[in-house]
Amino acid sequence: MKVLVTGGLGFIGSHTVVKLIEAGHEVVIVDNLFNSKLDVADRIEQITHAKPKVFIQDVCDKEKLADIFRQVLPDAVIHFAGYKAVGESCQKPLMYYRNNIDSALSVLECMQEFGCKNLVFLRLLLYMGSLAVCLLQKLVLDKRQLILMGRQR
Ligand SMILES: NC(=O)c1ccc[n+]([C@@H]2O[C@H](COP(=O)([O-])OP(=O)(O)OC[C@H]3O[C@@H](n4cnc5c(N)ncnc54)[C@H](O)[C@@H]3O)[C@@H](O)[C@H]2O)c1
Question: Is the pTM of this model over 0.85?
Fold first, then answer.
């Protein structure tokens, strides 16, 4: 399966990428390096002996993300890209809403446009808010294929 992993150079994303490659999947990473470094891709290669293709790109930019989808045509998306610091999210809530909601909408719109129906979405929901969660649930093409992980507070 060809899996596009947003935030794939981050903490959880990079471990997931290793497991996906070890399980025989083809992985493509999209990450803007906000909270990660490109050399994580080298460490993934050291562990798996396979270097995933990496696009350095903000997933909130829907047109640029659509270009990546057009090239990759993923079978599935795992969406990790987002800000996660709970303390900072209270100090700068609008920054968190903008990045975490825009990135999710951008990913969902590209999935819809390119007919990709398999999504794993991981987000600490406390800084997304219940409205955004409802929106996500309504937007998903097939709710059975949405795995909502994390806890809404
Ligand atoms: N770490 C945890 O304990 C934990 C627990 C539950 C849920 N989560 C959720 O899992 C997700 C990943 O967590 P993590 O710990 O790996 O975080 P992380 O900060 O290590 O990884 C997130 C990655 O996303 C990238 N990113 C952020 N905004 C982006 C954007 N607009 N476009 C492209 N890339 C972007 C960052 O550069 C980073 O590499 C987060 O959404 C977080 O809320 C984390």
Answer: yes
DSSP 112: H
Q: Residue 86's pLDDT is what?
A: 85
Write the burial class of residue 146 (CB in 10 Å: 0-12 exposed, 13-18 middle, 19+ buried).
Answer: middle
Q: Is the dihedral of CA 4, 7, 8, 14 positive or negative?
A: negative
Mean pLDDT along residues 106-132? 81
Q: For the chain, give the percent of residues with pLDDT over 70.
A: 80
Nearest Cα residue to atom 41 of ligand 1: 123
Rounded Cα–Cα distance for residues 72 and 95 (Å):
29
> How many angstroms separate the alpha carbon of residue 6 from the centre of ligand 1?
9
Cβ-contact 4, 55 below 8 angstroms: no
In the chain, which residue ranges form alpha helices assigned H by DSSP?
Answer: 11-22, 39-48, 62-72, 86-91, 93-113, 129-139
